[in-house]
Amino acid sequence: MKMMIVFGIILHVSRQASAVEMLEGQSVLLFCEFPTDDMDRPTVEWSRSDLSPSTVHQRQQEGDQLMDQNQLYRGRTSMKTDALETGDLSLNLTNLQTSDTGTYSCSVRSDRGKQRVRSEELLVKKLSSSWTKQLPVLLVLILTVVNVASALFYYFRHRLFSETKMELEKEKHYKIDVHCVRNPFFFFFFKLLPPFSLYDGYMQ
Fold first, then answer.
1. Which of 10, 1, 4, 2 lies closest to 105, judged by CA?
2. Beta strands 113-125 and 102-110: pairing type?
3. How far apart are CA 67 and CA 88, in angstroms?
4. Which residues cross the membrane (predicted)?
5. Dihedral, CA atoms, 80, 85, 87, 92, nearest 10 degrees?
6. Strand 55-60 relative to strand 43-47: parallel, antiparallel, unpaired?
7. In this predicted structure, what is the pLDDT of residue 164?
8. In whole angstroms, what is the distance from residue 204 CA to residue 200 CA?
């Protein structure tokens, strides 16, 4: 008799609930792990105590049992088909809504009683409010990229400008040297002229 009373006690594994922050429309995997392979006819249930009915998802060895599932989660929850064999009792929740915010409890029931394995807090934020908070950061990143791109543009433009000028100067001196070799008078004429830049004349 005492053994039956002990097995009938609802056991609670106290774990501090961890908060998970998500955005509307995203999917989330609520983690839960517990060995159930040595239990007789185990049932895993995900629930929210602030809802009525409180059942979010329920699974037995035969498969999902969703008759008592809250209508808010219809078609948006799933678990692995071998969850009760592997002990991976995690819940996949899709197309998140702000109404999904709350504390989710993972519990396992069997002939020996009910055991709450884990509680996890979920916070679903509106997409618009999140973008509003991130907008200043995005603006700073955009301005930084624009400034870096402008600096690189002016640097390479100046470098190309200088290299072009040097090439024109070399070409000018080469032509003068060729004419000087062929015509001594041409050499004497350029010696009398003041120095000038062929590049300046070219630009004019």
1. 10
2. antiparallel
3. 22
4. 135-156
5. 10
6. antiparallel
7. 76
8. 6
pLDDT beyond 60 at 80: yes
Cα separation, 187 vs 110, in Å, equals: 110
Q: Residue 184 — pLDDT band, cuts 50, 70, 90?
A: low
Residue 73 to residue 8: CA distance in whole angstroms: 30
SS (H, E, C) the chain: CHHHHHHHCCEECCCCCEEEEEECCCCEEECCECCCCCCCCCEEEEECCCCCCCEEEEEECCEECCCCCCHHHCCCEECCCCHHHHCECCEEECCCCHHHCEEEEEEEEECCEEEEEEEEEEEEECHHHHHHHHHHHHHHHHHHHHHHHHHHHHHHHHHHHHHHHHHHHHHHHHHHHHHHHHCHHHHHHHHHCCCCCHHHHHHC
165 φ/ψ angles, rounded to the nearest 5 degrees:
-65, -40
pTM of structure: 0.56
pLDDT computed for residue 107 by the predictor: 94
How far apart are alpha carbons 177 and 175 in whole angstroms? 5
Bridge-based pairing of strands 43-47 and 28-30 is unpaired
Distance CA 11, CA 161 (A): 80
Backbone angles phi, psi at 57, to 5 degrees: -160, 145
